[in-house]
Amino acid sequence: xxxxxxxxxxxxxxxxxxxxxxxxxxxxxxxxxxxxxxxxxxxxxxxxxxxxxxxxxxxxxxxxxxxxxxxxxxxxxxxxxxxxxxxxxxxxxxxxxxxxxxxxxxxxxxxxxxxxxxxxxxxxxxxxxxxxxxxxxxxxxxxxxxxxxxxxxxxxxxxxxxxxxxxxxxxxxxxxxxxxxxxxxxxxxxxxxxxxxxxxxxxxxxxxxxxxxxxxx
Length: 217
Prior knowledge:
Layout: E1 6-8, E2 14-16, H1 17-33, H2 37-58, H3 62-85, H4 102-111, H5 119-125, H6 143-150, H7 156-165, H8 174-181, H9 183-194, H10 199-216
Antiparallel strand pairs: 1-2
């Protein structure tokens, strides 16, 4: 095990080793956590030894600490997540590790209504995890992926989320195009939003006119 942080490769590029190791650790542990019982039994001693190695190295290097955490969460699932965070709030993106306990994931997700989440999280929780989706905060750089991924889920909460994306420079006309393409089930939610007040209601009213014009055409 190497705790080295950076090292140039033959082309002169710097390789951020902890980040690479974290990705490898997550992938290995993710697959192990979902392996057949026979395969899991054969490889468990090896992976437990590797987890202990990461844990030991992480005590000396905070960068490697992230590798150890990623490996432990991937390998241990919901039990490891509960052990690490207890009753404290959990970053939404870490909830994907607890796929073996959908009820826990839902509970933790709803307990942090401002945190963003992924469609992987919703795949674990089911539609109950969509509650309050439009109020969640997503970083500007991820909005395109959020629209693409959540746009595959046919639900009123998806329409509400897309309405909040209208007028975002980074997305251009993508939210409007999505609403027009899904006019059949988007219209009721858009119509409801248009009855409200403020800028968002005004945008919804404008979209509603476009939807109605498309239906008449």
